[in-house]
Design a protein that fits this description.
about 0% strand, about 80% helix
């Protein structure tokens, strides 16, 4: 398993989902921006598992654990980022949680 690639791809895809969801939700005001970000990232973060399986970074049996791990990691990241918007450190650390969730999912299934 290529752990670094999985981590980076999960972080980027989750962030992209959050961004696209926020842009779409912005049409519905401030609340829509946050809700859209949550939904967009929660939908797109699990795509990490598809990319990882396609690139053969994970075994087929790791697909669902990686998808769930990335999704849960993104939700944790979004909660952390929203609650630490006044600090640059919180959102910066939050970006890693999607990747860490995907790695945790891959490791859980492997054991």
């Amino acid at each position: 398993m290529n752990k670094l690639a999985l981590f980076i791809v999960a972080s980027v895809i989750g962030g992209l989902g959050g961004f696209l969801g926020s842009v779409s939700g912005n049409a519905f005001g401030r609340e829509g921006l946050f809700v859209g970000g949550f939904i967009g990232g929660a939908i797109l973060a699990p795509v990490t598992a598809w990319v990882a399986r396609w690139r053969r970074w994970i075994e087929p049996s790791q697909f669902w654990p990686v998808a769930v791990g990335a999704g849960v990691g993104f939700l944790a990241a979004a909660i952390l980022a929203v609650n630490t918007l006044s600090s640059p450190i919180g959102p910066l650390i939050a970006t890693t949680l999607t990747g860490l969730g995907a790695l945790a999912g891959a490791r859980m299934r492997r054991n």
